[in-house]
Amino acid sequence: DTAVSQTPKYLVTQMGNDKSIKCEQNLGHDTMYWYKQDSKKFLKIMFSYNNKELIINETVPNRFSPKSPDKAHLNLHINSLELGDSAVYFCASEGGRTGELFFGEGSRLTVL
Amino acid sequence: GNSVTQMEGPVTLSEEAFLTINCTYTATGYPSLFWYVQYPGEGLQLLLKATKADDKGSNKGFEATYRKETTSFHLEKGSVQVSDSAVYFCALRQVNNNDMRFGAGTRLTVKP
Q1: What is the rounded distance in angstroms from the CA atom of residue A100 to the CA atom of residue A93?
Q2: Which residues of B touch A56 (CB under 8 A)?
Q3: What is the DSSP string of A31-66?
Q4: Beta carbons of B99 and A104 less than 8 Å apart
Q5: Average pLDDT over residues B18-33
Q6: Quick one: which H or E segment has residue A107?
Q7: B74 in A contact zone (CB under 8 Å)
Q8: How confident is the model at residue B95 (pLDDT cuts 50, 70, 90)?
Q9: CB contact under 8 A, A90 and B102
């Protein structure tokens, strides 16, 4: 079983559309994250949730809205997509404060 | 603020060569330090970590020592293999903080 799974793995869409990326972890972890990785591999934190509560909300356009229906799920909804949103989005989870984040395989978003 | 600076890549080595990837950090207090590795097409995974000064993290032949006097956490391996080809990320986290800060990543290619 995949520990942290994201869907879809690839997403190609037009500017202005709204899209969602889903993330689920089966590790029983309390904390989940969304990271954005640009084309140069730079990894930037976007959001962090702990037990469904928003902990970190970096300077991200409010077109990005995370939703955590339960502690095993953290979804990312993006409104009015722009070219600059093209990137690989990684979901991750962490149990306790070990510093060991478990990452999903990433969702590559391409905005045309 | 907290930040991590790692050497720019890409780094290309022949098999069995010695590897060093430099990482220095800026932080107040005593952060925990990490190295993560990202193999092609995958999410990041923890390689090793150190939580206090003079600690040495090690895994799969890789080592890094937490040097507070030089604010460094350089990654080393005595003899690299083709299978070590990946992107390596240095990361930092403060105590009582969910924010894991990653460096820009260093791409390593090992040739047979």
Answers
A1: 8
A2: 98-99
A3: EEEEEEE-TT--EEEEEEEETTEEEEE-S--TTEEE
A4: no
A5: 93
A6: strand A107-111
A7: no
A8: confident
A9: no
Beta bridge partners of residue A66, listed in sequence order: A76
> pLDDT at position A78, please?
96
Q: CB of B101 within 8 A of CB of B55?
A: no
Q: Which among B45, B100, B106, B109 is the top mutation candidate for probing chain A, defined by the most A β-carbons within 10 Å of its own β-carbon?
A: B100
Strands A43-50 and A19-25: unpaired
Q: What residues does B27 pair with on adjacent strands?
A: none
Neighbours of A17 (CB within 10 A): 13
Distance from CA of B105 to the nearest CA of A (A): 6
Of all residues in chain A, the one with the smallest CA distance to B91 is A99
User: What is each CA distance from B20 to A108, A112, B26, B62, in whole angstroms?
Assistant: 30, 39, 20, 10
pLDDT at position B91 over 80: yes
B100-109 pLDDT tens trace: 889 999 999 9
CB atoms within 10 A of CB A84: 9
What six digits make up the tokens of B47?
């390689």
**Residue bearing tokens 């009015």:** A80
Least confident of A5-19, B34-48, B93-107: B93-107
List, in order, residues 6 or more apart from B52 with CB less than 8 Å away: B30, B66
Rounded to whole angstroms, the Cα distance separating A13 from B39 reads 26
Is B100 in CB contact (< 8 Å) with chain A?
Answer: yes
